[in-house]
Fold this sequence. Notes:
11 helices; 2 domains; two-stranded antiparallel ribbon; alpha+beta; 7-stranded mixed beta sheet; BirA Bifunctional Protein, domain 2; binds 3,4-dihydroxyphenylalanine; 18% strand; Methane Monooxygenase Hydroxylase, Chain G, domain 1
Amino acid sequence: MPEGQTVDHKQTVEAARKAFEQEFGRFARFRGSNNLDGLTLVEAEAAQRELVDARTRHTGKKSALASVKKLIGRVAAEDRADFGQQVQQLETEIVASLEEAEATLKEFISVARTERERIDVTLPGTRPRRGHLHPITLLRQRIEDIFVSLGYAIEDDREIETDYYNFDALNIPEGHPARASQDTFYTTEGFALRSQTSTVQIHAMERRTAPLRMIAPGRVFRRDTPDATHNPMFFQVEGLCVDRGITMAHLKGTLSEFVHRLFGPEIKTRFRPSYFPFTEPSAEMDYSCFKCGGKGCRTCKGSGWIELGGCGMVHPNVLRAVSIDPEIFSGFAFGFGLDRMAALMYKLDDIRLLFENDVRFLEQFN
Ligand code: DAH
């Protein structure tokens, strides 16, 4: 091979080196870790990706380096060793430059990522806002605890009822004012939102038969215009005890025990004759005011007494409706409202507050 060609080949190696150095210029700062001031993680990651391309372009099959390597076989035999060494030298330089820059970036990125994910455990956290139970729920749970300790089961039943459970089975005949559509929310024909939890008496006796002891706290609905003492939706607690030989004495004893546990042993009770279709005899029960002890105050409106609710001995017709023989079994029942009781206990002058969902109000029961 003529002399001139060897010179040409050497120039080709030089040209390849120049081309590489020119492009590698922008990665040159990454050859050591001393020039990385101001480098961001995003920039470093971008440079790392570009370096992968650069490596392919400068060491791959179509690279200038690959072309000069092919020339080795074509130079004159006596120049080949020398030329080969130069090409080798170029390759070592290129690969070393790329590898150094890659290593620097890799290290930088790893440190920067760790830094980004570092958590300062001494910083104050974001405190989740804790909720709490609604005042009605708090009162309901206290009442449930008392009755459970007296051997009562808790029943939870449907809020939409048929006329049969809401009225007929409870001995409330056709034509009774409570059945009128101005008092009860009817939904579809024959269905209504229950206007009293007494409906659960029937479901419970159907399911369990006698003997049984249960209370049924739950929502009831009536077509009342809301005011300070009325809401179209409110809570009642129903109670029912059916067994052999149950008398009015058991009713009085149970409800007295209940108010003693809820308000204290000094609380007195009184029963006034009343009327309910599903009890006979029926009574209204009052308890002495937990605030003034019976002397008369604002809470009891000066009377010394607070009304708990209705009660009585389960009407034989109600027992018959669920196939319990009234000759063998007898029982007592009671039902009272939770909202007005909560209003008295928490000194609310308006029961609508309970369902306005104003956190400033509800937070006070935390
Ligand atoms: N259900 C009646 C009402 O809503 C309350 C009531 C009275 C329930 C007497 C009873 C009872 O179980 O025996 O006004």
